[in-house]
Amino acid sequence: MDISVAGTGYVGLVTGVCLASRGHKVTCVETDRQKLAALRAGEPPIFEPGLRALMAESAANLTFTDDYAGAYKNAEVIFISVGTPERGDGYANLKYVYDAAEQIAASAESGCTVVMKSTVPMGTCEKLEKFFACHAGENVRIDVASNPEFLSQGTAVRDFLNEQRLVFGVRSASAEKVLRAVYAGFTKPVIVTDPQTAEMIKYASNNFLALKISFINEIANICELVGADVDTVSYGMGLDKRIGEKFLRAGIGYGGSCFPKDTLALHWLAKYHDYELKTVKAAIEVNENQRIRLIKKLRKYHKSVEGLRVAVLGLTFKPGTDDLREAPSVMNINILLEEGAAVTVWDPVAVPRVKAMFGDQVGYADTIERAVEGTDACLVLTEWEEIKNFDLKKFKHLMKTPLILDGRNCFDLRAAAEAGITYDSIGRKRVTPAPDGSCA
Ligand SMILES: NC(=O)c1ccc[n+]([C@@H]2O[C@H](COP(=O)([O-])OP(=O)(O)OC[C@H]3O[C@@H](n4cnc5c(N)ncnc54)[C@H](O)[C@@H]3O)[C@@H](O)[C@H]2O)c1
Question: Which family is annotated (predicted)?
Answer without folding.
Answer: Belongs to the UDP-glucose/GDP-mannose dehydrogenase family.
